[in-house]
């Protein structure tokens, strides 16, 4: 099944623009294939104003978002993989959506981590002592016994 991210981005972009607000994208600039001006990145993230009046040649495809924008008065081409977009929101109200991690991307990352872990070193195992606990109970701490119920504390007022 294809990713739902590009469809959510396009729908929210249209909703924000139709309401006369300014759509902004929060992008993880550390992801591969993100092409943004390095001087505009702060803490590995960048906020991009993607309003029609701020960018030219905006393309919101299923894989990439591409456009030209001015940073410090100089025009730069911008290309962002859809998976690198963390959120889309209206600047004026903050309304929008933080996008969930794409399931396909999560699975790929987990597969990579598993392969890496399996190839680096075998798991280390150690013996567990077979001695019972000093009080003879291996079940761990016991829950506290419930206290006896008290009578009701409400009274009827006429």
TrEMBL record:
Q: Which domain of life is it from?
A: Bacteria
* Molecular-function annotations in GO: peptidase activity
Task: Extract the coiled-coil ranges from the record.
Answer: none
Where is the sequence biased in composition, kind Acidic residues?
A: 103-118
List the InterPro entries.
Answer: SspB (IPR007481), SspB-like_sf (IPR036760)
Q: Which GO terms describe its biological process?
A: proteolysis
What transmembrane ranges does the database entry give? none
* Keyword Hydrolase set for record: yes
Q: Pfam families per the record?
A: SspB
Disordered as annotated region, ranges: 96-158
| N-terminal signal peptide | none
Task: Please provide the record's keywords in A-Z order.
Answer: Hydrolase, Protease
Q: Which PANTHER family match?
A: STRINGENT STARVATION PROTEIN B
The molecule here is called ClpXP protease specificity-enhancing factor
């Amino acid at each position: 099944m294809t990713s739902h991210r590009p469809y959510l981005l396009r729908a929210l972009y249209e909703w924000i623009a139709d309401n006369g607000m300014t759509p902004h994208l929060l992008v993880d600039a550390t992801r591969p294939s993100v092409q943004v001006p390095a001087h505009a990145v702060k803490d590995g993230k960048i906020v991009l104003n993607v309003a029609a009046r701020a960018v030219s040649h905006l393309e919101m495809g299923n894989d990439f978002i591409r456009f030209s924008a001015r940073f410090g008065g100089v025009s730069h081409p911008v290309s962002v993989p859809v998976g690198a977009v963390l959120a889309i929101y209206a600047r004026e109200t903050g309304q929008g959506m933080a996008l969930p991690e794409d399931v396909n991307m999560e699975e790929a990352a987990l597969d990579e981590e598993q392969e890496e872990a399996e190839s680096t070193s075998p798991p280390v195992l150690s013996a567990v002592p077979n001695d019972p606990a000093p009080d003879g109970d291996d079940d761990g701490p016991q829950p506290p016994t419930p206290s006896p119920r008290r009578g009701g504390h409400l009274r009827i007022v006429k």
